[in-house]
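Morning - zinc ion inputs below, output right after.
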Amino acid sequence: MTEGGKSLVIVLPTVGCRHYRESGGCVFCSYAREARGGVTGRELLEVFDRVMETVKRPDPPFAVKIFTSGSFLDPEEVPPDVRRGILARLADDPDVSEVCFESRPEFVRPEILEEVAEVLGGKPFEVGIGLETADDGLRELLRKDVTREEFEEAVENVKEAGGIAKAYVLLKPPFLSEAEAVLDCVESCLYAWDVGCERVSVCPMTVHAGTPVERWWRAGLYRPPWLWSVVEVVVRVKEEAPDLVVNPDTAGAGTPRGPSNCRRCSGRVASALEAFRPSQDVSVFEDLDCRCRGSWREDLTSR
Ligand code: SF4
Ligand SMILES: [Zn+2]
């Protein structure tokens, strides 16, 4: 199954990202700030069980995506016995075809992954790791606090344990023009592919409340990317790496805080990006056009 298949999303109310709690986090992210935080391990399991019992399930088989506003593999967020409990439940659930979760690379350790694979008993699992950009200087400006070596080691560990590695790549970090952002995102996706990721999530910047990016956006110093840029990235990456599963994120599409085109076409282009996810077929973009595409092209050539 590709990443665009049916899925059930579960958000666990953990204390949130350790990088945020200890060093203020990445300049664009408010997930950890929004984390409801502080529930005990037992309560986390109760939340998980309640969601699995009460939520409307997609038709099986489906993937389960676990989000934590941080790292599922961080024992401070999800105690090891709770992690094991959750994975064992998913392993036993015949409707669940794949388990997906996210983690910063420092927690993607061989011994933890071996245990994950063992508890899941052969069920496929995906580990999403935030790369944001392959450009070291830019990643530092984003205050990501992840080196390429750490990222590559984490990917290697996932693969050795039989998992699927996915990179999160940001489209249009601050400090870049539209053209530079497209190029950076394409190169970062291809880097992720080169070092062993089978999937990438292309994440166009959305302006989160309370972040430095929000201050720059309010001051008129930053604008989120065009949706045309998202399409451009997806097409270019699929040209270079047809087997890489590319998942364009459309969160916030068409809003002032998210990726957008003009009002006439934002919805249409976002729908095409969503149609692309399960099909991975770039022909869904062929008939798309709008007058605003000229303005986007002008933006691409200006600095
Ligand atoms: S982007 Fe990830 S690593 Fe950075 S602060 Fe947010 S949750 Fe933490
Ligand atoms: Zn338009």
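Note: The mean pLDDT is 95.

O.
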